[in-house]
Amino acid sequence: MKRIQAIIRPNRLEVLKKALVDNGIGGMTVTEVRGFGRQKGKIEIFRGVEYKTDFIKKLKIEILCKEENLEKIIKVIMESVREGEPGDGKIFIFPNEEIIRISSGEKGKEAI
Ligand SMILES: Nc1ncnc2c1ncn2[C@@H]1O[C@H](COP(=O)(O)OP(=O)(O)OP(=O)(O)O)[C@@H](O)[C@H]1O
Ligand SMILES: [Mg+2]
């Protein structure tokens, strides 16, 4: 099992959600976050407009998936959120030790 954490532009959420649902995703968690990357948050271009700020608002998306679905989900994320500009975000991937579905007690892959 893997945990995918993607930091994305807030305006890409709906497109991403639809693409993930269309590809049979089990679920996702969204958190509002603020951060910076290589540009140190100083200048970020969005639709040709430069924004200057220290911490830029992003959304953090978390998805738990089976190992065999990892590449497909990453492809869907890349294709849904990429605008080809600095600030498009990043994807972090972690091993996920355990998942427990509280309602049924199912564990592991069965709980996704
Ligand atoms: N090294 C990092 N560690 C933790 N969070 C990061 C890191 N780099 C980026 N982030 C998070 O991802 C968000 C988007 O980063 P961003 O897309 O600007 O990355 P970047 O490295 O500057 O690449 P780009 O040149 O495409 O902008 C940041 O606001 C921050 O929340
Ligand atoms: Mg950046």
Question: How do you describe this structure in short?
Answer:
This protein has 112 residues and is of the alpha+beta class. The protein has helices at 13-22, 70-81; strands at residues 2-8, 29-35, 44-46, 49-51, 56-65, 90-95. It has two helices and six strands, in the order βαββββαβ.
Descriptive tags:
112 residues; alpha+beta; Alpha-Beta Plaits; 4-stranded antiparallel β-sheet; two-stranded antiparallel sheet; 2 helices; binds adenosine-5'-triphosphate; binds magnesium ion
Indicate the topology:
Blueprint: E1 2-8, H1 13-22, E2 29-35, E3 44-46, E4 49-51, E5 56-65, H2 70-81, E6 90-95
Antiparallel strand pairs: 1-5, 1-6, 2-5, 3-4
The chain binds adenosine-5'-triphosphate (ATP) and magnesium ion (MG).
Magnesium ion is lined by residues 37-39, 86-87.
Q: Per CATH, what is the topology? A: Alpha-Beta Plaits
Number of domains: 1
End-to-end distance, in Å?
Answer: 9 Å
Largest sheet geometry: 4 strands, antiparallel
Structural class by SSE content: alpha+beta
Bound molecules: adenosine-5'-triphosphate, magnesium ion
Number of helices: 2
Q: List segments where confidence is low: pLDDT < 50 over at least 5 consecutive residues.
A: none
Radius of gyration: 15 Å
Helical content (DSSP H or I, runs of 4+): 10-25%
**Overall shape:** elongated
Provide the succession of SSEs.
Answer: EHEEEEHE
β content, as a range?
25-35%
Strand order of the largest sheet: 2-5-1-6
Count the strands?
A: 6
Instruction: Quote the average pLDDT.
Output: 93
CATH architecture: 2-Layer Sandwich
CATH class: Alpha Beta
Keywords: Phosphoprotein
Modified residues (O-UMP-tyrosine): 51
GO cellular component, one term: cytosol
GO molecular function: ATP binding; enzyme regulator activity
